[in-house]
Amino acid sequence: xxxxxxTFAFVSGNPALDLVATVESxxxxxxxxxxxxxxxxxxxxxxxxxxxxxxxxxxxxxAALTLREALHRLALDRVEERPFTPSALDVVNGAAxxxxxxxxxxxxxxxxxxxxRSALAQVARAGxxxxxxxxxxxxxxxxxxxxRLYVDRSRGARRTWCGMDxxxxxxxxxxxxxxxxxxxxxxx
Length: 188
Description:
Blueprint: H1 15-20, E1 23-24, E2 31-32, H2 37-46, H3 58-79, H4 86-96, E3 102-106, E4 109-113, H5 116-132, E5 138-140, E6 149-151, H6 164-187
Antiparallel strand pairs: 1-2, 3-4, 5-6
Helix pairs in contact: 3-4, 3-5, 4-5
């Protein structure tokens, strides 16, 4: 992997939210990790819930980005407890209505096959299923520079960051440093 290729993290608990997370730091300095059709192909390949191999062109990338932004809007609507945005509903419902990947069972286990449209349909349906549940614990990461949305499946739904590796360790390390500096200031 070259340094220009994005590294995808699948910590949101749902492929729809993982697709939304392909834009980092939406508040401050947004960075789109799906800049090219090849980036989208890599994302689909790395997502365990989608077909292993798809090809994407410019139109496929545009469709994925449109779906991503619609899912982001609907997830924020859910988090902020407001009615869904009608135009975003149209995009997600339209994508979810398309044919799904084919599921095959073999000695190696489950295998999904299909094209990009079927992969996006699978992502859209995952989003529909998640967002249809008004009690689904969808949250935004508590780390100030992270805007990832995630499903909080922790006991008591008390998780405050999207993932331990990406944000949890940083939050804990920052808190430790702050306590250490406070003790040092008191001891002077």
